Amino acid sequence: MPAGKKLYFASDFHLGARSYKSSRQREERIIRWLDAIKVDASEIFLLGDVFDFWFEYKTVVPKGYIRFLGKLAELTDSGIKLYLFKGNHDMWMFDYFVTELNASIISDELVIERSGKIFYLHHGDGLGPGDKKYKFLKKIFRSPLCQWLFGLIPPDLGIGIANNWSKKSRTKGVRTLPERRYEHGWLITHAKELLRSAHYDYFIFGHKHLPLEKEISPNSRYVNLGEWINYNTYAVFDGTSLELKYFEKPE
Ligand SMILES: [Mn+2]
């Protein structure tokens, strides 16, 4: 890593979710964050569900997010490297952001080494035991044939259906905080499983919408990035240590 430079990690912005107004406010908050970190960021990792729904047709992309995409373009044009992970809400990113933002699109996990630390990065969907129904759906959603067929549906209809689906899957699992602590379990199980065959310093996930930092073995930490509807959480690595932080910490 270049001296003085940092890695930044965030996920689950769910842009487009809830009302236009609330999404725009969130978008502006994210832009303030990007402006704050661009001074020392060398790489930015957005670990999925950046959009509440994203599907790229051959010649059409969803409306909106102009300021956000413009800000990302400013950062990547200035030389900051951007990684966009596919989440369960926005796995239909193909080459648009590669062409426009020079981003790397990550389909599943990404393992990187920076300053001697090994990072395992993944959105967090469909990992660990259980969640059989979703794992099956994910196979369908990711199949090139199904994606090709979906692409034949006119965008107004296709995106309309998808937005409804997205809203349902997002509101279905809303529970109170203490009840949701256990939800990290499968991801932690998955991480511990990986530790049997190799060493990782940091496991970073999103998806659970619940920020958490936890030591899972003497030299390995589990970090969940939370989300930006309620928490505005992100992680930063300065070459020595990783920290989970709040941006404009909500009351
Ligand atoms: Mn997710």
Automatic annotation (TrEMBL):
<keyword id="KW-0997">Cell inner membrane</keyword>
<keyword id="KW-0472">Membrane</keyword>
<keyword id="KW-0464">Manganese</keyword>
<dbReference type="GO" id="GO:0009245">
    <property type="term" value="P:lipid A biosynthetic process"/>
</dbReference>
<keyword id="KW-0479">Metal-binding</keyword>
<dbReference type="InterPro" id="IPR043461">
    <property type="entry name" value="LpxH-like"/>
</dbReference>
<dbReference type="Pfam" id="PF00149">
    <property type="entry name" value="Metallophos"/>
</dbReference>
<keyword id="KW-0378">Hydrolase</keyword>
<feature type="domain" description="Calcineurin-like phosphoesterase">
    <location>
        <begin position="6"/>
        <end position="210"/>
    </location>
</feature>
<dbReference type="GO" id="GO:0046872">
    <property type="term" value="F:metal ion binding"/>
</dbReference>
<dbReference type="GO" id="GO:0016020">
    <property type="term" value="C:membrane"/>
</dbReference>
<keyword id="KW-1003">Cell membrane</keyword>
<dbReference type="GO" id="GO:0008758">
    <property type="term" value="F:UDP-2,3-diacylglucosamine hydrolase activity"/>
</dbReference>
<dbReference type="InterPro" id="IPR004843">
    <property type="entry name" value="Calcineurin-like_PHP"/>
</dbReference>
<protein>
    <submittedName>
        <fullName>UDP-2,3-diacylglucosamine diphosphatase</fullName>
    </submittedName>
</protein>
<dbReference type="InterPro" id="IPR029052">
    <property type="entry name" value="Metallo-depent_PP-like"/>
</dbReference>
